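Key idea: predict the complex, not the pieces.
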Amino acid sequence: MAPFKLFLLSFLFVVSLSGTYKAIADNPPTLRPPPQRIPPRRTPPGSMPTPPSPPQHVTPSPPYSVTPTPSPPQDVMPSPDHPVTPSPPEDVTPSPPHLVIPSPPQDVAPSPPHYVTTSPPHGEVTPLPPQYVTPPPKDVMPAPPNHTTPSPPQDITPSLPSPSKDITRSPPHHSTPSPPKDATSSPPQSITPSPPQFSIFHPNPFPQSSNNNFFLFNLITCFDHLRSFFSGQLTVVMALQIAKRLLRSRATNEIFTATRSPSVGLFTTFDRNYSSTSSNLITATLFPGDGIGPEIAESVKQVFNAAEVPIEWEEHFVGTEVDPRTQSFLTWESLESVRRNKVGLKGPMATPIGKGHRSLNLTLRKELNLYANVRPCYSLPGYKTRYDDVNLVTIRENTEGEYSGLEHQVVRGVVESLKIITRQASLRVAEYAFYYAKTHGRDRVSAVHKANIMQKTDGLFLKCCREVAEKYPEIKYEEVVIDNCCMMLVKNPTLFDVLVMPNLYGDIISDLCAGLIGGLGLTPSLNIGEGGIALAEAVHGSAPDIAGKNLANPTALLLSAVSMLHHLDLNEQADKIQDAILKTIAEGKYRTGDLGGTSTTTEFTKAIIDHL
Amino acid sequence: MAQPTLPILKKLISTNPQHLRSCFRSITYMPRPGYSGAKPVNPITGAGIRTPVTLIPGDGIGPLVTNAVEQVMEAMQAPVSFEKFDVHGNMNKIPDEVMDSIKRNKVCLKGGLITPVGGGVNSLNVMLRKDLDLFVSLVNCFNFPGLPTRHENVNIVVIRENTEGEYAGLEHEVVPGVVESLKVITKFCSERIAKYAFEYAHLNNRKTVTAVHKANIMKLADGLFLESCREIAKSYPKIKYNEIIVDNCCMQLVSKPEQFDVMVTPNLYGNLVANTAAGIAGGTGVMPGGNVGVEYAIFEQGASAGNVGKPKMVEKKKANPVALLLSSAMMLRHLELPDFADRLETAVKHVIYEGKYRTKDLGGTSTTQEVTDAVISALKMT
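Result:
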């Protein structure tokens, strides 16, 4: 009997662990904001035990765990050979842009489920293990607030070396194979034990700050798992889920006291386990673009090689004919590749003039649901502009607002244009802004608005920002009227840190800030999309007049790639490359034409590599 | 015989003190506006004619700076009398008596009115502009000699459509969580603002008019605005016309502001561009401006940022009166009293050039009263 009891106990223990995992997968808190990466930047080297196979076997997510019923995609029943999660990442949030007002039922339910205050979204968010030094399969993008259900599962997919990577990749559905998908296809596997896995690889939503919690928690999940496995009584499980959430929320409070400073106690144990040098690569999509695009993309590749960044590029080109699936010159494969890799770098693209196709930027934005545009603006030491001490980040809502494109002529000579602000989109971008501020060590977020005149629209935006601000008490939050903001920016840019704004103001202010530091040729930009997708791009034009002459300035694309690396948490390399670039420009010996020098692109690149 | 009669008669009915009535002075000094005693006089009553102007001190630093203007006007002995009215930003609407006064006087000088953010109260500033149909908001941004800024050679006039556009105030909640705001652009308003801009450029010897828009995204709305501008441009062949997208415009303003001259914009972009331009040229505390309509005109601090100032500034009385002083100079020109306007402007610029009395936003430490006194003494010198 004794051995059997032992066995049973260990079985239960193991099961509880996987149950924990399942629990995570099960309750994608409808809004699963950023796997809270409070990652210290530098992680002490350690070794990571080889993880066993991933527990993507979680039992099919019961309805409650997925985005609440309103969203149609739910109906996709997981078919046996096509382990698709009921809710594909992209579609759940009906794309705000063209505010298809018909879609309200889904997302505009009074206080969209995402933000139901009961669920402490941040409680569930994982303080991601600091370094995905074994860079995770794209699935595990340490993603920004991901407000679509499936994302959490993605984040949970452990960062694994190749073998499991293949497993995660094998599912035919090439958008992120989130655990639930596979789970649906093979429940029995759920018993596959994986003790270390949970604690090490998962973006652990339950920071086990105390053993008590752990034990209690495990007990609960153990029961939970047993129940769902054996009886499947939803209500009881739901109750347990709620209990879990409460637990998490209790535990959560500790997460946010940790800042980016290295290895604060909470994560020390986990840190060490993580930081071994990666043996596998992150695949990233690269769109070289037109005009000077290919040259500067080449430059980026060289610099990355020299810096030994574990990124493998998958290049895609803009086609020469319209792809009917995307209604533009970008092929479906390219978009799929970005969706799969979760990370991309885009060079300047010139939209061919003509009809019958969408503009390339618009296609990307819509298809990938890129909702936030992040532009870090900092003065480049050595390139003198009138403003020397700029160091701010503008985060702009990219989908709705004044740029919805809904205009019509009322009568001859009278035109109306609609500006649309939704709670959902505003919350999304505010979440990302605070998340960004937190993970990059910024201490102030300013919301820019004109709510004294446009009371309801910008008032709604402000309300959402305030709500999110409450969840981040350590970040200072302020609101600035846009005209004040403009004036203060040109008088004293040091007053601002992170700016978050709706679409139009964001457009103007981000370009203003780009002007402060020297123009679009030096400004990096990063677009964040649903599902943790990050697409870094160079916002300047394709400069066809200097294309092919080796005269282009690759700085913008390089800095964008650096911000992409920051997003991927490869902070050391990112810093290294950034320092090299800044040093090169500061020295002034090798500068391209637009900075006032005479170097060629290759010389400039070489200088950067030398500085590395 | 008849000639000496008049002075004698005057002596008789004048209010000279009794003991001086036997002598009268000959005029030996040149008459100067405001100093000579040759003020316009009502021939029957003998009272001086002063143009009445409505004065709304407003909130925050408003009372402080309008007081400064009053003092200076008094010192200059400008033939302007002020009818003061108390209006605050949290009132529901402008009181009727104020509106009547403005409609009677046709000219108003105003301090800033606070608009509660996000509250259900409509901005009184905007309401005033709409009711009186002040469709032009003019801000003149220029570099002051002696005031160091990051940008040189700035001399921009931003002419901004003041009644429609994004500030139409037509908002509604479609379903909970989705709010729409209407931006309305009409051909009528776009035409008249374009016409004003070109006429201004023509009358003030300006060479270029630039239209600021975002028509690549808002094709119909800003497209209509651009069309109107282009049409009007055709009737002013001597004035160069070009167009620029608003985000590019802001970038250029920050790097190369000397390329801009007169800029005509719809409502929202105008707000941003005006504040940016004011910021690069010295700050909104020194830029004059006004809201002008066909019949009425209201002059206030040019760019709207910092209109009401912060409470600390009010306490310490360190608000910058320069903007409102220069706006009142604009007002004097509007009242066709250019001499007074010139004197006032020269005095103010002299004070700034000297640099001894500057308020905090210009890098100094003076109070409002000190600056006002400096201006008055500068006036007396010239």
